[in-house]
Amino acid sequence: MKKLGQTLILTISVSALLGCNSDSPDQVMIPTTPTEDVGQPEKPTQPEKPVPTISLSTYTPGTTEGGSSDASTAVALDDNFIIVADDEANILRVYPKNGGAAIAAWNFEENGPMFKKELDIEASALLADNIVVFTGSHGNKKDGGDAMADRSHMFSVKITGTGKDTKFEYLGKYSDLESNLTEWDHSNQHGLGKDHFGLVQSAADGSVPERTHGFAIEGMTATHDESALLLGFRAPQLDTGTRAKALIIPVTNYAQLLKGTATSATFGKAIELNLGGRGVRSISKHLNNEYLIVAGPALANRNEIKEAFALYLWDGNPDSPARELNHSLEQMRIDSKGSIETIVERYNPSADVQLLLDNGDSIWPDQTAISKDLEDKDQRFQGGFVTISDTKNDVIAPSLVKISPEKNVMGVNTDTTIQLWFDEGVQFSTGDFKIYKGDTLVETIAANSPQVTLDFNRITITPKQKLDYETNYRVEMGAMIQDHQANKVPAGEMTQFKTAGQPTPLKAGDLYFMGGNAEAPDAIAFILMKDVDGGTEIYFSDRDYSIKEEKFWKRDKNGGGEPATNEGVFRWTADRFIKAGSIITIQTDTEASPIANIGQVLGTPSGIGKEETMFAMIGTEVADLQDGSAGLITKNGQFLASITLGGVTDNDIPAEIVNYSMKFLPEGKADQTNAIFDTAKCGFDRTNLATFASNIKDQSCWKLSFKSAGAAGWPLIEENSLFKNAVIR
To answer: Does the UniProt entry include the keyword Signal (predicted)?
Structure first.
């Protein structure tokens, strides 16, 4: 092993920063420049009352049409019943307030506005005389595909009767809100400057909605005098740099829009609220002319966050701050395994507030598949009541829970970013990151530099130039990171790593797919058949490929088409030296870039469907490849392998990888398929990869399961991997 001469140190706020095993053959202890270890400050005790607990009730679809697991918005019909919408179906259901089976329903595909495509209904506002306004999210599809024609509607109904005798009278709809919002921002109608809120970019085709710079309306209520509708945005968050504040925009002529007497929306002064770096997930009128807000991350919940969701009270004054309440919504989410989705809005609010959860991805104790994939009768969601409590007094600084590259790792890619994960949303004060070679300062990066990005609880630092090969560095961080209550992270502890040599060239046969899930958790797994150095890049895409066009191609029904921009494309980069025989699992159905058990991933998420082929390539070029998004594949590069799950429609396999292509198809019609190499049956001897390469091509060595049979995907069993002992250390 070569002697290490220079060191990379990142000064951070934790003691013993997630150290790696120094006995590992791939990792060594690197000598460091002596520094003072300031450590983690003693955490003060918060002078708060005990956090109230929440008991859960369960709601089922009963004998109403279809199933329901994804409660998305709700209003109280009276003291005994609630009306709940589901973001995966165009149906409103009536449930007993305290749980049980739905007893009435109204299908608005067949009645009222008669929307034929999924509205993705996410918010509602209860008005006088039991009039309710519902709205779609107005966001793109999960993969960034444009869905404005389907989701950009709001409509109103008048509700009479109660219980099983509830009746819905359709009043009107409006379908141009998204275009009105983007034009309002783009043409500076608010007076803050052209594109001040970045709504055109946030709503553009290809923009993933559930990102801090995405576009999704998830909260809505009327002002107390009903003069305006308040639109609460899960995304975008503001400003367009730090993305730390939540956005609320009043619609001041909503009544005229829904009656058809106005043709364009007018907007009041936009409101920016500090919700701890979160967006609006639900908003409701509350007592004393205040508003209650459920706040949550723009992205899906991240495991490292201690309090993803929180309750806030706000007095309605655009210049007043929202006050966080002392409630543990996180425990409610953990107990239910769902996402806090909505406040049940009451026309006469009280201190007791009802919350509902989206349990679409929950796996119930008596089931094996996620709830939204169960038979209709077995689907369910949950909810509970909270009593509004005192304002929370947060005096604890954020804790750093993860860093990449990890401590003492060798073979780090030379274009690495430095990423920090904290246990809550953070923001910056003034300060710098400093990169050294040994004791020589080579770069100073200010916290407000474009080289530093902040995404709720994650910070990414990008050096201006690539690091040198086989070189040791150190990076120091000033004490400029704090939470949204100004509790600062002190400078402290150190970590270090060494960069890699040249990236490893690969060809077909240097990797094989070992697994793929079309059901949650959507994921792929592949095995490396040769050692790779850090910096080695492999591209993956489930876009449809056309041999005729020699491109990833979106076919149309007339036999034509265009270059594909929908579906996923992402780049995996080895962030260290990785030995042959190591298995990499990449979770693809994420809110931003997919997640790997080892290495770094950049690009669009990919929900694997019932007819999917995932390609692996090297030397690929992708326009505008970013965290959570990607443009055209402008150069295919060299294909390495592929795996097909469920069906072969619209996908051709290039000739050069026919011998490295696996297909797993049901006997009948296309079906969402999960496939994994059966190591128990066919063995997995890492000392004899040639035999393994023969076995991997034998379909009898694979286990299959199908959505039609109620199967979930193969589980992640260890360190976000589909396989045990996946990485050779």
So the answer is: yes
Has residue 302 been placed in a domain? yes
Please count the other Cβ atoms lying within 10 Å of the Cβ belonging to residue 360: 24
In a domain, 545, yes or no: yes
The answer to whether residues 541 and 472 belong to one domain is no
Between CA 258 and CA 273 the distance in angstroms is 28
707 in the same domain as 640: yes
Burial degree of 531 (CB within 10 A; 0-12, 13-18, 19+) = middle
For residue range 417-464, list pLDDT tens digits in order: 888 999 999 999 889 998 888 788 999 999 999 999 888 898 989 999
Handedness of CA 681, 683, 684, 690 (dihedral sign): negative
Cis ω on the peptide bond leading into residue 405 (within 30° of 0)?
A: yes
Q: Are residues 521 and 619 in the same domain?
A: yes
At 644, is the secondary structure helix, strand, or coil? strand
Would you tell me how many other CB atoms lie within 10 Å of the CB of residue 633? 24
Q: Which of 369-383, 402-416, 418-432, 611-625 has the lowest mean pLDDT?
A: 402-416
Phi, psi of 4 (to 5 degrees): -95, 130
Q: How far apart are CA 87 and CA 339, in angstroms?
A: 13
Residue 696: DSSP 8-state: H
DSSP state of 250: E
CA distances from 81 to 59, 91, 123, 383, 437 (A): 12, 16, 18, 14, 66
Question: 346 lies in a domain?
Answer: yes
Distance CA 483, CA 464 (A): 27
196 class by beta-carbon count within 10 Å (0-12 exposed, 13-18 middle, 19+ buried) = middle
For 280-293, give one letter per residue: b (16+ CB within 10 A) or e: bbbbbbbeeebbbb
Q: Name the residue with higher pLDDT: 333 or 314.
A: 314
Of the candidates 38, 46, 47, the one whose C-alpha atom is nearest the C-alpha of residue 489 is 38
Structural domain total, the chain: 3
Q: Do 491 and 615 reside in the same domain of the chain?
A: no
Looking at the structure, tell me whether residues 644 and 572 fall in a common domain.
yes
Q: Which domain holds residue 682?
A: 511-720
Question: Cα(296)–Cα(311) distance, rounded to whole angstroms?
Answer: 9
83 CB neighbour count, 10 Å cutoff: 27
Tokens of 465: 């130039």
Q: What is the pLDDT of residue 494?
A: 59
Dist CA 509 CA 615 (whole Å): 13
Q: What is the CATH number of the domain that holds 491?
A: 2.60.40.1220
Tell me how many degrees the CA angle 534-536-540 measures, rounded to the nearest 5.
130
Q: Which of 49-63, 170-184, 527-541 has the lowest mean pLDDT?
A: 49-63
Domain limit, last residue, from 343, 370, 391:
391
**Residues 655 and 647 sit within 8 Å (Cβ to Cβ):** no
Residue 296, judged by CB atoms within 10 A of its CB (0-12, 13-18, 19+), counts as buried
Write a three-state SS string for 199-236.
HHHHHCCCCCCCCCCCCEEEEEEECCCCCCEEEEEEEE
Shortest CA distance to 214 belongs to which of 265, 147, 118?
Answer: 147
Kindly report the average pLDDT of the chain as a whole number: 88
